[in-house]
Amino acid sequence: MVICIFGDSITWGAFDYKNGGWVGRLRNYFEEKDEEIEIYNLGIAGNKTRDLLARFENEVKVRKVDVIVFAIGINDVNKKEIEFKENVEKLYKKATKYSTKIIFIGLTRVDERKTKVLSFFAGKKYTNSRIEKLDEVIKDFCQKMDLKYIEVGDLIEKGDLVDGLHPNSKGHEKMYERIKSEFEEYLKIEM
Question: Any residues with CB less than 8 A from the CB of 56 and at least 6 apart, and which?
Answer without folding.
Answer: 6, 91, 94, 95
